[in-house]
Amino acid sequence: MHWHFPEDLKYTGKHEWVKMTDQNGKKTVLIGITDYAQDKLGKIVFVELPETGREVKPGESLAVIESVKAVSDVFSPVAGSVLEVNEGLFDTPELLNEDPYAAGWIVRLAIADEAEYAGLMSVSEYLTFVRQAEEEV
Amino acid sequence: MPGLKKTPLYERHLQMKGKIIDFGGWLLPVEYGGIIEEVLHTRNKASLFDASHMGEILVEGPRAEDFLQKILTNDLGRLQDNGVMYSPACYPDGGTVDDILVYRYNRQRYLLVVNAANTEKDYNWFCAWLNPDVTIKNLSAAFALLALQGPDSPAILQQLTHVSLAGLKYYHFMPRVILAGAECMISRTGYTGEDGFEIFCPAQQAASLWDELFAAGNNNLELRPAGLGARDILRLEAALPLYGHELTREITPLEAGLARFVCFAKNTAFYGRETLARQHEEGLQQRLMGLVMLERGIPRAGYIVKKGEEEIGRVSSGSFCPSVGKSCALAFMHPQKVGEGDTVGVLIRQREYAARIVKIPFYRRG
Fold first, then answer.
1. What pLDDT is attached to residue A1?
2. What is the ipTM of this complex?
3. Does the residue B183 lie in any domain?
């Protein structure tokens, strides 16, 4: 597989990545889409981001990504509230294609329950998941 | 994927890493690496598209012209041998059966190129109105259709034949040209808004013609394959209608802005004539117009267009358009309520994004 998946991240079945960070003792998570997701979507031309302060439940739509081909939702992998959004994506949505794990992060959430993070897929589980998705095509 | 049809070039698409999708029952490449790149490459150099899913219906007989004059809204009387004409075909109520390219070999023999998804429906519709002096045949399976599009197309295709292509004018065709050992029909037509050719080739020889075109195109000319995604954006930029979006069973050609292809002056009665004439007389309730987004946001088919609080239209096709550098849409709007230059709002996920009504096409080749 030619996609890259960093080892220190957690993954979801909707092809999002989640990174736990510690900000002054407060647990927050960064959320973005995987290299696989950006490759499948093709060139991304528009991103709609949530308002900061919004409370989200797991599975709720957090952001909307428009590629040339299609519209797709980014679903929140965990419960929490939106602390920060990547405003750079308004003017340069292609960051999601070019640098999905760093400059192309989408939102930062204050996570409500850390156990939810622990329950997400590890990189090896996600790799298996992607392999299966590819075999079905 | 059982039940899905493959074109004679399916293996080539796999070899060239095309992303295959189910397009109305056909397995076809949506892209080979990047839709935007493929659009721009077609505008700047040349691309090769597989359009083999399109239908081809042969109409022949002593009264072929009379028959087609009844079926089609455009005036076949103005079409000469080796000429191509675009025409809608309508139901008596003015709704559109299909939009069709008509190739005239001679007054008694025509080839109709129809939309893939409509081939069977068209064939049955035509059969219902046949007269004993006309026969029709569905030849779709026998032909592959390769569309070579973009400014470098003539230089590439010329390498495959001694017949001068300079003599082949826009909307004309050559019925028999040998290309890569195959007897082909070539027309100077396309669905991209660029110069180019559509090549009808016997299905068995399509793969070798595809290869020869790429061999010729590698001579400093950089021919690349392009998929359905690029084809859809190229036609949108050129404001060419797509059946199912700008034309349907419910939409008349007048509403779709195709009045110049509806010839009330021709001598023959044609299906839809009375309804269309009445619509022409009374004025349209909806008409196709162009929208350019003033804010970021992609208009897509089905989105509502508003002026103030009032709903005044609906998007039929929309996308980011790389040749224009903006997102554009075709939309059916009420011509008494809005016009060119007006600012309207496109409703995208419950929020209104500003757009301006502009003259179409969005892109015209220089």
1. 72
2. 0.77
3. yes
